Amino acid sequence: MALSVRILGIDPGLRRMGWGVIRVEGSRLSAIAHGVVTPPTAAPLSERLMHLFNSVGDLVRQHGPDEAAIEEAFMAANAASALKLGHARAAAMLAPARAGLPVAEYAARLVKKSVVGTGAADKAQVAAMVGILLPGTKATADAADALAIAICHAHHRRATSLGSAA
Question: What residues make up the catalytic site?
Answer without folding.
Answer: 11, 71, 142
